[in-house]
């Protein structure tokens, strides 16, 4: 099983730790693309701060994020599962997983990153600011860089298992599973139901996805199809509705009434 997570906009900034070593990151097939994006981002942020802020979509009070990016090659690093923060990652709370669940997280989770493509929980990375819809001078749209690079890496990491795609639409554009993988692709949509009406609410969506991943890791099951994943989630207490098989995979709707 491979579970693809979105990154968080906000990140915890480590104050100590070794500097970034791209060669030490998992999924080494992504190293050339990582070098390309890293070089472009650092060059942008060591130039005119106003130009960098405009390119990155930052406001006038966020100049510190430009400086943060300028120091990426020498800044302290920490495990990716400690760098990414926010609603989903608070709900997932990797640090408090059982020993067995942490081991599963290491082999089953991968975070989509505008800077690194994909990272595993134990990969040591610095805090950075680079949104998925950014266009960098030189390489162009970061989504385009990763669209060319991610396919072979994701396919190899997936092997014969189930792909659980929890990425947001921005990061889903980095790589879309080909039709031949569709029988083994599950996407999850979280619907908030109140008085019989359903809607997608960002906070419920993120928190519920974090809790779903946590529950799946603790459970230890290894579903091989979207249907088996739906059964597993139902057994774990979730209200799940299984959609139709499509060329893009199968959507699971998880219906919640509260976070």
Q: Can you summarize this structure?
A:
This is Peroxide stress protein YaaA. The protein is of the alpha/beta class and 259 residues long.
Question: Could you explain how this protein is built, in words?
Answer:
There is one protein chain. The chain has one domain (2-256). The protein contains 10 helices and 12 strands. The protein has helices at residues 31-45, 49-56, 63-70, 80-83, 87-92, 99-108, 142-158, 169-172, 202-219, 226-235, and strands at 2-5, 78-79, 109-113, 117-119, 124-125, 135-136, 140-141, 163-165, 185-194, 197-199, 239-246, 249-256. The strands form 3 sheets. Strands 1, 3, 4, 8, 9, 10, 11 and 12 form an 8-stranded mixed beta sheet that branches. It has a two-stranded antiparallel sheet with strand order 2-5. A hairpin with a 2-residue loop joins strand 9 (185-194) and strand 10 (197-199). The model has no long low-confidence stretch (mean pLDDT 95). It comes from Nocardioides koreensis. This is Peroxide stress protein YaaA.
Helix percent band: 25-40%
How many whole angstroms does the radius of gyration measure?
A: 18 Å
**Beta-strand content estimate:** 15-25%
What gross morphology would you assign?
A: globular
The helix/strand order is: EHHHEHHHEEEEEHEHEEHHEE
Helix count equals: 10
Query: What value does the average pLDDT take?
Result: 95
Our count of domains comes out at 1
Query: Which structural class should the secondary elements be placed in?
Result: alpha/beta
Largest sheet: 8 strands, mixed
* Number of E-type strands: 12
Low-pLDDT residue spans: none
| End-to-end distance | 26 Å
């Amino acid at each position: 099983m491979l579970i693809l997570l979105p990154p968080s906009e906000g990140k915890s900034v480590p104050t100590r730790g070794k500097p970034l070593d791209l060669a030490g990151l998992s999924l080494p097939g992504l190293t050339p693309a990582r070098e390309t994006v890293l070089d472009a981002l650092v060059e942008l942020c060591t130039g005119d701060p106003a130009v960098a802020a405009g390119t990155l979509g930052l406001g006038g009070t966020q100049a510190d994020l430009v400086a943060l990016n300028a120091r990426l090659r020498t800044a302290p690093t920490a495990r990716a599962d400690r760098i990414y923060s926010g609603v989903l990652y608070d709900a997932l709370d990797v640090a408090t997983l059982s020993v067995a669940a942490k081991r599963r997280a290491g082999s089953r989770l991968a975070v989509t990153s505008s800077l690194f493509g994909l990272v595993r929980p134990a990969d040591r990375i610095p805090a950075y600011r680079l949104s998925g819809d950014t266009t960098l001078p030189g390489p162009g749209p970061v989504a385009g860089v990763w669209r060319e690079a991610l396919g072979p890496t994701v396919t190899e990491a997936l092997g014969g298992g189930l792909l659980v795609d929890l990425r947001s639409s921005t990061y889903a554009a980095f790589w879309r599973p080909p039709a031949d993988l569709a029988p083994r692709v599950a996407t999850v949509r979280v619907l908030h139901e109140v008085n019989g009406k359903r809607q997608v609410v960002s906070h419920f969506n993120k928190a519920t996805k974090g809790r779903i991943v946590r529950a799946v890791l603790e459970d230890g099951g290894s579903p091989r199809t979207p249907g088996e994943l739906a059964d597993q989630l139902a057994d774990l207490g979730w209200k799940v509705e299984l959609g139709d098989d499509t060329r893009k995979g199968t959507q699971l709707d998880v219906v919640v009434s509260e976070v």
